[in-house]
Amino acid sequence: MSQNFFTLLKIPEAFVIDVERLDQHYQDIQKEIHPDRFASFDNETKLESIKKTAQVNDAYQTLKSPIRRAEYMLQLHGVNIHDEKYTAVPQDFLMQQMEWREELETHKQNKLALEKLATEIQKNKNDMLNQLPAFFDHKDHLNDAIKITRELNFIEKIEQHIHDALIEII
Amino acid sequence: MAYSDKVLDHYENPRNVGSLDKNDPHVGTGMVGAPACGDVMKLQIKVTDDGVIEDAKFKTYGCGSAIASSSLVTEWLKGKTLDQASEIKNSAIAEELALPPVKIHCSVLAEDAIKSAIADLKSKQGK
């Protein structure tokens, strides 16, 4: 039914991707299946083109973002990161999250402090993202990939909050 | 999404926000997080020598339902024994706060925070 996103966008199934190639293939396929091209066709064909376009957009957005891509690859392995029952995130990681959130709360009005916090978090995020390719390369490390991908969800959340706070200031 | 009156009440007037000394041998600290939504919850309990919870504090970074769930359980925990506390179920929290299905995981988080705090206390006291 739903085609593998990597197959759909004609790139090799791996965590490290050629982003330019992804962009190029996405644009090519978009042109090929764009609903405007099927304006004079029957409704069924038009509907098919719309569906396909949505699917390709979804695949592209998923693969373009490293965190969404990691989640998708885990999903292909039968692991759903958004499993709501899971709460046993490592304590030291949660402690760090608490501290960052407290810092954000304290400095909500302070642009410089927020930017400093954002830089620190960005660095952590990059370190985590850099670990993922090796984890996805080896089947034995699937659990490590799961752990990092889960943790990245928390990182994304606080980044969003900092972003919102910065917009409030400006 | 519309929050129930009880959720709004806890959200606007959270009970027992704060921290207890995590190095106190009578204090158990539970830390849990939900990767699905990025919420982080810290729940602390302080027990008497008889094993009765005399104080409970929480700090939650998350949505209104997560804050309300943790606020509510700090009220419920006080005066309970550890055994009674470990019997608190997420379904009771969800029911009390009238949480919609998409917010059930917030009550799961609160239940797991209680369990985590009790486990921390027990390991500290060598039981």
Automatic annotation (TrEMBL), chain B:
A scaffold on which IscS assembles Fe-S clusters. It is likely that Fe-S cluster coordination is flexible as the role of this complex is to build and then hand off Fe-S clusters. This is Iron-sulfur cluster assembly scaffold protein IscU. Residues 2-126 form the NIF system FeS cluster assembly NifU N-terminal domain. One of its GO terms (cellular component) is cytoplasm. GO terms for biological process: iron-sulfur cluster assembly. GO terms for molecular function: iron ion binding; iron-sulfur cluster binding. Belongs to the NifU family. It comes from the Bacteria. InterPro entries: ISCU, NIF_FeS_clus_asmbl_NifU_N.
